[in-house]
Amino acid sequence: MIRTRFAPSPTGFLHIGGARTALFSWAFARHHGGQFILRIEDTDVVRSTPEAVQAILDGMQWLGLTHDEGPFYQMQRMDRYREVIQTMLAAGTAYPCYTTPDELERMREAQRASGLKPRYDGTWRPEPGKTLPTPPAGALPVVRFRNPLDGVVAWDDLVKGRIEIANAELDDLVIARADGTPTYNFCVVVDDWEMGITHVIRGDDHVNNTPRQINILAALGAQVPLYAHLSMILGDDGQKLSKRHGAVSVMQYDDEGYLPEAVLNYLARLGWSHGDEEVFSMSQFCAWFDLDHITPSAAQFNTEKLNWLNAHYLKQADNERLAALVQPRLAARGVTVSASPSLAAICGLYKERVSNLNELTDAAEVFYIDLHPKAEILAQHLTPEALPALADFVAGIREVDWEVAAISALIKTCIGKHGLKMPKLAMPLRVLLTGQAQTPSVDALLALFPRELVLKRLAAAVPD
Ligand code: GLU
């Protein structure tokens, strides 16, 4: 049974890199009919906040990355970590160390001065035949992991290939602080072990932790999971992705009017490919997803492509769903939606022309507000030759069936009578109805409005 996990530290929002890690871990579990576990790594009590936990849960929910187990909170598992530390002390795979922070600092300075890599010197490390110093009275020790001295620790990274580190490079990691709290790498190890994680899929900023984690797992007699370290995501400009690049929080994409399926489809292609496929659903993605097709090189963000995907998914989206997404955006602007014109119908007509929900909201807003088109735009389109045709059109409104074909016929009659080309009448209609010169086809636009509202908006130009 495949078991993967997403293990964010709640020190900020769910960012794009984290969301991609979560997506790949989720899809790998889904592909194999396995389990996806959510674990909140909240042991950094200074930087972790409940708001950040909520932001992560909201982001995961918005994306629809559902977990099968959890969320587990590391702060609620402290007793268990302490127990494991006790077993390791008893087994001799960990030991108390009384070296003080001052002594450590002096040790490191001396090592640096002689051109050595700073590391713990093993003073308190038990060895066969070695006599340990006497613990200072009343001092509280840290607990260190007894890292193997020789050999290499190696793993076949499922993205990066084989990685080998000499144990001589690793000193004895502190696994519990003097106050007894377990340290970061240790909690990860205990959790990956006890949660039965088979595949650790995470960012490659954790590659340096992996050899230490593998050694501790081995000391615990635990099955070592397989590791897949994902390369980082660069911004459009090739620099490390940061706030400078605009939206980096997943929920900010929601604010900016992206649909979750567009963001997911976009993220899926950040460092993974399936032939030339660019547009696919999450069920398709889960069916295809494997770790073999993750590229080891960094992926580059491409906002244009994301915008293109968003426009694509907007066109596909059901009108009622779009209306439900646009309605709260209108409400946030203080605009109340009425039953007529129908918001779903407006969304249906405009979704072909917008690239995000905020643009769709802009388009819908003019239908529900007390519209005052700019004098300048009116002057440009309400030409003397247009006015008589417009007056005829207004006069005909009550006579026709209020639907696209009949409205279209009325427009044709009016321009025909005055020998005008279509835009001569269509443009004034557009600007009077919406304040904008660019709209979907004018007969369809007119049909969205209730007849009375059209009369009201045109009355401004054509008095009775
Ligand atoms: N909590 C770590 C982070 O947010 C991830 C740890 C892991 O995946 O092993 O970067």
TrEMBL record:
Compartments in which it is found: Cytoplasm
Catalysis: reaction(s): tRNA(Glu) + L-glutamate + ATP = L-glutamyl-tRNA(Glu) + AMP + diphosphate
Cleavable signal peptide: none
Keyword presence, Protein biosynthesis: yes
Entry GO terms, CC: cytosol
Alphabetical UniProt keywords: Aminoacyl-tRNA synthetase, ATP-binding, Cytoplasm, Ligase, Nucleotide-binding, Protein biosynthesis
Biased composition (Basic and acidic residues): 118-128
GO biological process, one term: glutamyl-tRNA aminoacylation
Entry-linked SUPFAM superfamilies: An anticodon-binding domain of class I aminoacyl-tRNA synthetases, Nucleotidylyl transferase
A Pfam match: tRNA-synt_1c
InterPro entries the record matches: aa-tRNA-synth_I_cd-bd (IPR045462), aa-tRNA-synth_I_codon-bd_sub2 (IPR020751), aa-tRNA-synth_I_CS (IPR001412), aa_tRNA-synth_I_cd-bd_sf (IPR008925), Glu-tRNA-ligase_bac/mito (IPR004527), Glu/Gln-tRNA-synth (IPR000924), Glu/Gln-tRNA-synth_Ib_cat-dom (IPR020058), GluQ/Sye (IPR049940)
Motif range ('KMSKS' region): 240-244
UniProt motif ('HIGH' region) ranges: 8-18
Quaternary structure annotation from Swiss-Prot or TrEMBL: Monomer.
Family listed: Belongs to the class-I aminoacyl-tRNA synthetase family. Glutamate--tRNA ligase type 1 subfamily.
Record's protein name: Glutamate--tRNA ligase
Native species: Candidatus Propionivibrio dominans
